[in-house]
Structure formats: C-alpha cells, structure tokens
Design a protein that fits this description.
With about 650 residues, the protein is of the alpha+beta class. It has 3 domains: about 280 residues, Formate dehydrogenase/DMSO reductase fold (Up-down Bundle); about 90 residues, Cytochrome Bc1 Complex, Chain D, domain 2; about 150 residues, Glutaredoxin (3-Layer(aba) Sandwich), CATH 3.40.30. About 55% of the residues lie in helices and about 5% in strands. It has a 4-stranded mixed beta sheet, with helices on both faces. The longest helix is centred in the first third of the chain and has 33 residues. The two termini are about 35 Å apart.
Length: about 650
Amino acid sequence: MELAFIRFIESLASALAVGLLLAPRLIDENGQRFKPAIALLALLRFLLGFVFIVVTARGIIPEGRPFDFDAVLTFSLATTVGRAFLATQLLALAFAGLAAARLFASIQPLDIAALVAGGLVLAATSVTGHAIDDSFTWWTQASFLLHTLAGLTWIGGLIGLVWWMFTGRDKPPEVAARLAERWSTIAKVAIALVFATGLVMAWENVSSFANLLATPYGRLLSLKLLLLAAAMLAALALALYLNRRPAGEFDFGWYGRVGAAEAAAAVGLLFIAGWIAVITPASHETDLYWPLPFRLSWAATWGYVGMKLPWTDVPGWYLAPAWSGLAALVFSVFGAALWLVPRARPWRRFATPAALTLAALGVVSSFATVAYPDTYADPAVDYTAESVARGQKDFAENCVACHGATGEGNGEMAKTLKVPPADLTAPHVGNHTIGDIFHWLTFGGTSGVMPGFKDVLDSDDRWDLINFLLMMSYSNRARFIGATPMVQWLIAPDFQLVDPEDKITTLYGLRGVPTLVSFARCNAAGADETQLDESLAIAAQTAKAAGAHHVTVYQGGCPAATLGRQPTHARAVEAAYSVINRYPNEIPTTEIAEAHYLIDRSGYVRARFRHFAEGDVQAPQLASDVAALAKEPFVIISLHSH
C-alpha cells in the first residue's frame, strides 16, 4: 500500500503539471497563473521518484543485508528495475528544470519543450510498473507506455480544465467554450487509446474473465472499470451540454462541478491503477478466491450431453439449461410482440426493457453451474509423472473402496451407498474445473456421501491426487490409442530426465520436436529377451533416423545401445504412464512390459506402439507419424489445460 500511495501521488503530480501546461495552450493563453503550481508539481514528482526508489529497494533487498546508501546505489545501478527508475528520474529532472525555467522566461519553445518533457515523464511511469517485465512482447510493452501517456494526459488535462473553469470565470464565454471543445477532442483520442491499450494489457495481466473476480488484481481492475464508467457518464453530460449550449453563454459553475465529478472518478481510477501496478498480475496469481456461488460454463451446461430430460431420449437436453433457455426465448418473444401488437404498444416503454432483462437473466442462468471459493484455484503442484504416481498411491489408499481400482465407480462399497460413486474415467470429469475437484476432495462431494479429506491428505497430496484423476479421466479413451496419431487431448505428464551429455532437462523442455518415449521391462518374467531387444533397437533407430527425441524408461538389463535420455525417477514415470497404458479386456497394472508413446511438438500424447518387429509396418508408421507431427504448428500449452 505504501508503494501504491507514493506511485499515486507522483503520477497525479506529473499528470496535473502536464494538464496545467496543456489547457492554456489550447486557446493560446500564456497560463501565467499556473506557472508556480506547475514548477512545484514537477519538483514534487522528481523528489517522490527518489522516495519510490528507496521504498522499492527496501522491499527487494533481503532483510539480512544492510540497508544503507551503498545498498540503494547498488540496487539502482546494478538491477534492471533500478536502472529503469533512474532513467525516469532523468526525465523528471529535465521536466522540473524546464518548469522552473518557465518562471523566468515566457517563450513558446520553452513551453513546448516543457510539455514534451512532461509527456515523456507520463509515458515513462509504466516503466516503474509491470511494463519492465522483459518477457512481454514489444507491442505489449508499447501498450503500457501509450496507456499511461494517454490515461495520465486525460486525468491531468481534466483536472487542469476544471481548475481553469473555477479560476477563469472572468473570461469570455466563447473562450471557455472553445477550450472545452478542443479539450473534448483530445480527451476522446486519449480515452480511445486507453481502451485499446487496456485490452492488450488485460490480455497479458488477467488472461481470463474468471480472474477479474477471483484475484485481488482482477477485482481492483473491475473497480477501475466501474470508476471509468462513472467518469464517462460525466463526460457524456459535458459533451451534451457543449452541443446544446446557447450561443454567447457558458455556465462556468455547472461545467466546473460536473467536470470535478468526472475528475474525482478519474483520480480514484488513478489510485487503483497505482495500486494495480505494484501487486501481482492476475495471470500470475496463485491464490484465487471466487466470490460467487455460480459460474458460467458452456462445457458444464449445454456442452455436457451426459444427462437428459427424464421423459425424452434426446441427448444434450437436461433440466436447468433447457428450461432457462426456453424462458429466455419466451420473454424475448414477448418483448418483441409488444412492438408488433398495436394494443400492447402503450406498455412497451416499460414492459420491453423488463422482458429483455428477464430474457438476459434466463440466458445467463442457462449457462450457470455451481461454483465454490476454490473453483478457479491454481494447482500448487505441477502436472508431473512423479505427482501422478504419488496421487495413484493416495487413490489406492483412500478411494478404491468406492470408486474401484479402475476409477469406474465399481468399488466394493459402491452397491451399499445411497448415491453411486462417480465414474472417474468418464468425460464429465473434464467439465469441472480443477478447483472444483480440489474443493470436493477437501470438504466432500455435493451428494453428501463422499467425505472430505482435508484431515487425511494435506494440500499438496490433494493436488497430487487431482493430477492422477486428470490422467485417469481420459484412461478409457486412452485404451484405444493406436499407431495413427489422434486428436490432441491428452497432455503427457512432465518428468525430469538426464540426457546423454549428463545435462539435466525435462520432457517438457524437449518440446518443439516430436519425442518417442519407450517403456520396457527387460527383466519381466516370461519376456522373450531376443524379441524385446530387437524391438527396442528398431524403436531407437527409427526415432533417430526420423529426427525425433528418444526417451527410454527401462527396468532391468535392457541393451545399452538403445538407451536415450533417461528419467531420474524411472519407477514413478512407469507408474504414471501405466494409467493410460490400457488395452481392451486387459487388467490394469502399474508395470509396463513394453510400450512406445509418440508425443507431438506441443506435448500431447498422439500415438502408441506396442511392439516393433523386423518387416512389420510399425517402424514405417512411426517414421511417417514423426514426419507428419514435425509439420504441425507448435502450440504452448498449460500442463493443467485438461
């Protein structure tokens, strides 16, 4: 909050200084009465910049290290953040110097130079916020600069205009009207830039509509949008007045008061913007809290075809969306009929808005599904093979009795329960958010039958279990993975591995090139060692010739010549991938005798080969698949995008 307040004051000071510089120039006025204020505001901005550097450094430098002048100097000169602050301070110094020079000289070039320097200070304000993140694209960073320049110019110019109105009542009405009209044009351009660049910034810093309500950053941004809407309503009133103003008249008092209301909303908006600039962006936030008891979801309502109305056999129609959608249609038709039926026209002024409002509520409710405070929670544990293996163990210890060993809801206790356990391999699991599942594991299921596990499994254990459930929810379809690449739907769990040069990397780090992951148990009872060695050699040679990475997860004495990159925890990787290593009519096991998974450039499991033999079609098929996948676009995916 301390940083936010300092940032707010320094931004307001520089914005007001620029606004007081700009307003008189719009009507070729010398603005003599504003010069002392502009100089003081520019000096205040320069001094507050040093305070901002010190407070920021104090928050970054570890507590164990001495915090003195040398520490602040090192921070300022040796870090990207510090150098960015110093650069803005040089601009602020130039602005303060030019503003002070205007006290002693009244020449147009000096005024223009001061205005340009002030504009640069406004634009550079973003450099001391999230724009300093060098992971952003150049157009995103440019959006930050334009956003702060346009926004602060609008706020400062608006306050300057109000100041002019309250102190310039002795001016001719036409002069005031000309100033207001010219300022209105500048404000429209500035607000258009604020909207356009704000969308780009929101895309980077928020990333989803849910984050607007589920994160502190998003909630502050929502409040900022409300204040902007209030300011726009006041601006609309001012614009209407200018269009309807009687010639030769200008109501200084009314225009100043409404302008002050717009400025008050703008100042509140600026404070929120300063606060947002020093907290974690919503897209990087891990502590998400959803405040509403519902959320809107196509997948969980109209997109879910697993339920239907009890008296029909039409899939995809089930009670809540069907009736809510029908109600929305009825209200829409009623609202339209009021305009078509002559006798109903006297009522349309009030009834049509009411009918359309009810129709909108019907549409919204048809997409509504239950939500919890944890609904949009981000996983605290990465989607890795090691995590899946741990979750598999927790599932066996706590969930098998009801859900069964395969997760299909057929455990020993299933028939004794009043509500049957869910089939965790069914596609409906993917219609819930990861946070929903975490909530049920923590507090119990909605039916009241499944207990909560918060006293049995800690938070990380529950996230491990969720990673296992995500894999298992697709295990039914995974049984039918063949040699031909399928649609992208199953993300390969990540795991750490060592490459031939003994460098540590991960499966996820190999993206960009197709990867073949080969599993083999060369010490398995009953295994034909000769055939297995031949199969592994063919897999290794084909992958190498096709230009694919090769990762080998071997147990026992497999041939050293076929080894590729190897996992650091082979048993955990084998156990995790055994979840999807299922074939029809085969009993699931945590061991993989032999299997070869082809993973595309983006990280999806696309094909599986059970065994290679000399002269069969499997090796040519693998080479063909690698060539096809290499041509597909590379897509950056989230490891939790199930």
